[in-house]
Each structure stands twice: as structure tokens, then as C-alpha cells.
Amino acid sequence: MTGSDCIFCKIVHGDIPSAKVYEDDKVLAFLDLSQVTKGHTLVIPKKHEENVYELSHDTSSNLFQAVPKIARALKATYGPVGMNILNNNGEEAGQSVFHYHLHLLPRYGKGDGFGAVWHDHSSKYSGADLEEMAKEIAAKLY
Questions:
Q1: From the record, which residues define motif Histidine triad motif (predicted)?
Q2: pTM, to two decimals
């Protein structure tokens, strides 16, 4: 999908309305229509970049500078007891809009509409396994 076909690019350009929470020259934040929890906000770079693998240093820096400001505003406004910050990259990970975005999901306790399931696989990996995995990953950093 190109920027011209992208729903989030259309929101950035004002072609589609949104309930804006925050905007500067590089970042836009607006309420997600689904409102999984009250205040559920999407934070996007204005520049079209598909996923975390494509994010430039400047884009990620600008985006992540805005996130704490928005999260603090959500906390001050609605008083959640916690906050999930969620990002899906690729269709298999649940990405449905292929313009990088973060979900800020204020949490209000069990039964608030959002739940993540984590499985503990620590028994499958020894300390040596983890060290080897860390070396393999570190060798690919660029």
C-alpha cells in the first residue's frame, strides 16, 4: 500500500476526519474508533512508513518523544491504573493498517475490554541458550 492509498495518510492530510489528541509537524495522535478501552489512542508518524522494520531514526525519535506526553495526558484525564502500549508489525502479528502506529490503551482493571495472553516458555531455554540467542541477534544489529 502506498501513502496515497493509506487510510492513516488520508487522516494526516485531512481527507478523513479524526478526533485529534495531539499533533506536531512529525506526529499525529487520534482516538481509535474501536475504543477498546476509554481513551484508546493511536500515535502515528505523519511520514508513511509501514512497520517498525522501516522506521528511520528521525521518525522513531519524533514518535517516541510524543508518546510519554500523550500517555501522561491520558492518565491525567481518565485516571487509568495502567497503560498498554501495543504495536503490531505484519499481517501475522495482527497489523491491519500498514502505516506504523502505536496503540495507547489505558487500563482500568480486569474486564476493561483488553486482555493479552502471555505464555511462559522459560523452561525451554537454558542460560546458555539465551546467551547464544543474544549473540545471534547482536551480530545482526546495524
A1: 99-103
A2: 0.92
